[in-house]
Amino acid sequence: MSKRFEELAWRETPMGAISLRRRLEPSLKVDVYEVKLGDEFLMSSLFTVAEIELARLGLAQLTDPDLDVVVGGLGLGYTARAVLQDPRVRSLAVVEALPEVIEWHESELLPDTAGLAADVRVRLVHGDFFAMIDAGADFDPTTPERRFHAVLVDIDHTPRHVLHPSHSAFYTPAGLRRLTALLRPDGVFALWSDDPPDADFRAVLAEVFTTTEAHVVTFPNPLTGADSANTVYVAT
Question: N or C: which end of the chain has fewer CB within 10 A?
């Protein structure tokens, strides 16, 4: 049986101390992998349904036979892994601000997403996704001004509850218009949020995109015995 608790990685970063830990969840008798930034829980392998749905719902809007995708935020890797499970995906750039998180995947500390970093379709890009959008940076340095079929983002808790104040400008009409420079015609932007659908943010999306949807993704929460929910916004 696994140890009840094990800290797999810990390091100070400009955003605070980040740690990856594994614990045995006694009620389910399974290993749970969790990420904390400072005192905040960022993600858990116990709750991955919406992260996977972010990829599924975003790519479901596309009819192209070959897809080039950007994921903003690597985390535990569940969104990226779900993207790669779509056989149409020929390339995936995953942008992650913290090199420590990239190292977890290169070292294969996470059994559920082991092999992600080694997939020939994948490039793990160390960079601040929001700063790169703001600067008009290329997400594929080998092909300047390359456009992508989908950009899927799971970084902040919600458009209102951001990890750093500098992220807030992204969730405005001007910020999202800068994002569209990365998208092909009829390309898709999808965003994970921990809150219920936000009418104000949907109005912001509607200023920039032709169609917008807010999908409520429910999943069982074994810790509460009830259902929990996240939101996935999809805009084309």
Answer: N
CA atoms within 13 A on the CB side of 157: 12
* Type of residue numbered 222: P
- State both tokens at 173: 């009409």
Neighbours of 211 (CB within 10 A): 12
Q: What is the structure's pLDDT at 2?
A: 62
What CATH number is associated with residue 137? Answer: 3.40.50.150
Going by their DSSP bridges, the two strands 30-37 and 40-44 should be labelled as: antiparallel
How confident is the model over 78-98, as pLDDT tens digits? 999 999 999 999 999 999 998
Does a structural domain hold residue 29? no
Q: Residue 178's domain spans which residues? A: 47-235
Under a CB-based contact definition with an 8 Å cutoff, are residues 19 and 39 in contact? Answer: no
- Give Cβ neighbours of residue 97 (< 8 Å, ≥ 6 apart): 15, 126, 127, 128, 129, 155
Q: Which residues contact 95 (CB under 8 A, 6 or more apart)?
A: 70, 71, 72, 73, 74, 125, 127, 129, 132, 139
